[in-house]
Amino acid sequence: MSLLMKMQTQLNDSMPGSAAELISVALDSGDIYSAAAVYGLADIDDKKSLAKLLTAKRRDVLKLARWEHTPAEVLALFADVEDEAVRLRIDKNPATQTQTLSNLYRDEADISFITLIAKHANTSAEVLWQILHSSTATELVRAVVKNPNTDAETLALVAEKFADQFDAELASHPATSADLLMRLYARGNEFVQAAVVAHESCPDALFTLAAKQQNSLILRHLASNPHIDKRLAARLALDKDYVVRRAAASHKNLPAWVLQELVKDKSEYVRRVVAAREELTPEMVNCLIADTDHWVRQRVALNPALSESQLYRLSQDEHKEVRRAVARNPKTNPALLSQLANDKDSWVRAGVANQPNTQASTLIILAEMDDVDVLGGVAANPRTPQSVLQRLSSSDSADVRRAVILNTTAVRQTLLPLLDDPYYLNRMMLVQNKALTADDKWTLHDDPDPVVRFSLFTWFSRQYQQ
């Protein structure tokens, strides 16, 4: 190796001290992922050099144009490439930003590409309005109506121009006005009416009208609307159809006497919803604890309203999902968690391992087990001693090692060996870890995986932008 090459290698191995040095390393590497990560950081001259690297090979452009992590500025660069395959990928890429989509639409004539723009989550209301005026093709108009960025004015125009053709989409759109909802309800079928009464902006007058219906579909959607008043919610919670009662059972305004009825409801689906409510009285909880349906008992076992004696009773339940729910309950004390750590089922023990209230002494015992779910919980628990985390960082399981990486108490010495982790996702997650220094992270700059390199150069770019 020549002296010049050795000097260049040493320069690249040393952590860059500035944005200019970071960009220089990316350019010297010839790596499109590193170049894409620093593109937004570069000045005009460096941008030209990076653009030349990024667009040199068509296969690279196609690859990055499709990749959901490609920065918006790089996608904007690719938008100027005269290539239908590239444009197709940019139109579909969720990272493509509003201005790029606007520019693409301005020069677009192909209706299939325009439809993709109409479907995109970042397309502006203004462009959607323009698209609506450009064509009456069914799929294109439907794409506009279903786009969450479409405004009330555009939706009203659709209702006017296309009669009832798109009423189902209009009834579900969050921007649909109260006036339009009134018209949709008046002319709609039961499915449209159901969507209208569940809408955030549904007028109170329609609540009254819909409550007179005998249609379970409409009543169920009505019951799910959080804006209905206390009296109507109570009435629907006692409806003859269990699907209506189940929808109303989660309503925040239900009076206590209605809840008292629902904890004894003949449908387990209704009782399951009630069991998750936090304002239950001790008497209601006792009723649900004795329920014959184990999903009811499981849901009430998660309820923070339970007393210690009620939690202990449920910890003896025959069903593992119920015992696991006790292990996950934020009110469960360390003593009971210690008992559950010896449960016959590993799924329950895993719940204990993940519980923030579990004491270090219990976690040390759990760390000796061989179940991956249990070990993953121990590795992620902030109470786990550092010595145990260090041992688990050499686990055969990538999931357990990743849990150590995600543990906010893991120190630098515990994490350093994981920079050589065989699984790329674990190495990538270390880039964001606050316990490691910038020098530690820079060792990943020539990582064999492009996602790791991209993450690292992106992280350094953000440091220099601050």
Automatic annotation (TrEMBL):
It comes from Methylophaga sulfidovorans. Residues 299-355 form the Leucine rich repeat variant domain. Gene3D superfamilies: Leucine-rich Repeat Variant. SUPFAM superfamilies: ARM repeat (SSF48371). InterPro entries: ARM-like, ARM-type_fold, LRV_2. This is Leucine rich repeat variant domain-containing protein. It holds the Pfam family LRV_2. It comes from the Bacteria.
